């Protein structure tokens, strides 16, 4: 059964975006990719130097992302969502946006040492971000499937997710 939404949750640098692109390549049907980073990175961060403004901009990006999810999910194409469900409010906003949609909920895991190494290798990452998210990202969440991107290639992780679709999604 093809879901309406494949929801990927994991820390920064855990491989969610790379996995989403692998899913798009391997799915065999058109699949939209909605990423939280796309919305928060609409701001030119080096131009927003005031901490209060930075917080307001980030909050607006997150809010707009959740609003857009409902629009994307209502469209004619399935959706892969690349998210960081760090706050209970973010989980609730995502649930509300995807209400009445078939969702396959995927935990994207990766050891802290690996995400820190990936973070250091990417100039667009803030050092320490993944470590700050790490203890919170999967807390109290139950997934339909979990993948470890330190052990799986993006393609093999995508294949695991696509194989899981035969069992049907169960949004928590």
Question: Could you please describe the fold and organization of this structure?
Answer:
By secondary structure, the protein is of the alpha/beta class. The chain has one domain (5-167): 3-Layer(aba) Sandwich (Rossmann fold), CATH 3.40.50. The chain has helices at residues 16-26, 36-40, 51-74, 88-97, 112-121, 129-133, 154-164, and strands spanning 5-9, 32-35, 79-83, 103-109, 145-148. Strands 2-3-1-4-5 form a 5-stranded parallel β-sheet, with helices on both faces. Helix 1 (16-26) crosses helix 7 and helix 3 packs parallel to helix 4 (88-97). The longest helix is centred in the middle third of the chain and has 24 residues, at 51-74.
Brief synopsis:
This protein is an alpha/beta fold and 172 residues long.
Keywords:
single chain, Rossmann fold, five-stranded parallel sheet, 5 strands, 15% strand
């Amino acid at each position: 059964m093809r879901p309406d939404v494949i929801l990927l949750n994991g820390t920064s640098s855990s491989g969610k975006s790379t996995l989403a692109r692998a899913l798009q390549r391997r799915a065999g049907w058109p699949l939209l990719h909605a990423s939280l980073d796309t919305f928060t990175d609409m701001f030119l961060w080096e131009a927003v130097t005031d901490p209060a403004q930075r917080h307001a901009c980030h909050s607006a990006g997150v809010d707009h992302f959740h609003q857009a999810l409902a629009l994307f999910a209502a469209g004619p194409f399935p959706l892969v969502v690349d998210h960081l469900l760090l706050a209970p409010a973010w989980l609730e906003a995502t649930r509300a946006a995807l209400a009445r949609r078939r969702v396959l909920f995927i935990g994207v895991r990766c050891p802290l040492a690996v995400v820190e190494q990936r973070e250091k290798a990417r100039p667009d990452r803030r050092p320490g971000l993944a470590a700050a998210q790490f203890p919170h990202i999967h807390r109290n969440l139950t997934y339909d499937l979990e993948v470890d991107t330190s052990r799986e290639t993006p393609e093999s992780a995508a294949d695991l997710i696509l194989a899981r679709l035969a069992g049907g999604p169960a949004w928590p």
